[in-house]
Amino acid sequence: MSTDYIEKNLNGEDISFDEAVELFSFPVHDLGYMADRIRKEKCGDVVGFVIDRNINYTNACISKCKFCAFYARDGSQEYVLSYDEILGKVADAVERDATQIMLQGGINPDLGIEWFEGLFREIKKRFDVDIHSLSPPEIIYLVKKEGMSIEEVISRLRDAGLDSIPGGGAEILSDEIRMEISNKCTSEEWIHVMETAHRLGMKTTATMMFGHVEKEKHIVEHLFKIRDLQKKTGGFTAFIPWSFQPGNTELQRTVKEPAPPLSYLRIVAVSRIVLHNIRNIQVSWLTQGMEIATLALDFGANDFGGVMLEENVVKATGKEFRPVRADEIVSAIRKAGRIPARRDTYYNIIEFC
Q1: What span, in angstroms and rounded, lies between the C-alpha atoms of 345 and 352?
Q2: φ, ψ (nearest 5 deg) of residue 315
Q3: To 5 degrees, how large is the angle CA 191–CA 193–CA 197?
Q4: Kind and range of the H or E element at 22?
């Protein structure tokens, strides 16, 4: 049975919904074996990472999602970083060899498209860095606020300097689940943003936040939507699953603890097996810690993500955060018997380490 899954993946064949659900009944070591075989064939032993910074430009948010600990609970806690503050953070990151900047924030009704256009132009004027920023919910809000189409918003932002769009805001791409935990865009809107970006020649990533109120069928629904859009556009560079962190969130009333490490490893492996048309599966050391993230390299993952010189969203849940140095990532990759390589936003190798 396991060889059937491997052969279908390597041949670029879709597995059925029932076959995908069945994977969750496999022993985790069998899943790891299948996923690692596929990873070895498709990606070899090179494991990439990027030097980047996450800048959360505002915590003011009208969505107030149940899974979020970051948004300001009242007006006195709200902030919006100034251009100068953001440019200072970018300068510090570039001095530390960062090649990628991710700007993500709350859905702030005071910030229109011109604010982002001006910011992106200022960054590009001063720095040689990729702007990998704004998630689909932020794009959708600008669409509604400005009365524009998705294509118009993305085109204007791209012309101002936006290079690629991260896959945030996906959570679980099943509206049955989204209605329970989120007040952001629908799954169809999320897909539409990504499809439009791909059609305009822009690359994006895809994510999944699991370990809250979803069932296995919802995870498969999510993976199939990513897989099917990739068949149409080929625009996703990577898939990044990560586990919900319940601390300081409204959802903590029903979800007391994050998903255990074995569940995370299972999801990584299932993602590799199902997503036959996405080359890069990225670990989440931020939510899992370095040890489990390194172990995930044996469960189908081939990328270590970024060093994250700054991060505030997960940290707001109370989970301890400290930036991981590039040499720590290099060491972890080598200990796993793999070849570390610094990459850019588009997963092109800059240098082997």
Answers
A1: 16
A2: -60, -30
A3: 115
A4: helix 17-22
Tokens of 278: 């996405």
CATH number for the domain spanning 296: value is 3.20.20.70
- pLDDT at position 65: 77
Structure tokens at 86: 């953001």
Sign of CA dihedral 309, 313, 316, 321: negative
Express each pLDDT in 26-35 by its tens digit. 999 999 999 9
Measured between alpha carbons, how far is residue 230 from residues 192, 199, 226, 277 in Å?
Answer: 12, 11, 6, 7
pTM comes to: 0.95
Sheet holding 280-281, edge to edge: 204-210, 236-243, 280-281
Q: If you search the block for the tokens 């505002």, which residue do you land on?
A: 58
Domain span at residue 194 reads 2-352
CB 58 within 8 A of CB 79: yes
**3-class secondary structure, 102:** strand
Contacts 24+ apart (CB under 8 A), 28-33: 28/262, 28/265, 28/266, 28/269, 30/2, 31/265, 31/266, 31/269, 31/270, 31/273, 31/299, 32/265, 32/269, 32/298, 32/299, 32/300, 33/2
Q: What's the structural domain count of the chain?
A: 1
Tokens of 68: 């979020």
Report CA 76 to chain centroid distance, whole Å: 30
3-state secondary structure at position 54: strand
pLDDT, one tens digit per residue, over 176-211 is: 999 899 888 999 999 999 999 999 999 999 999 999
Residue 124 burial (CB < 10 Å; 0-12/13-18/19+)?
A: middle
Cβ atoms 178, 172 nearer than 8 A? yes
Confidence of residue 274 (pLDDT cuts 50, 70, 90): very high
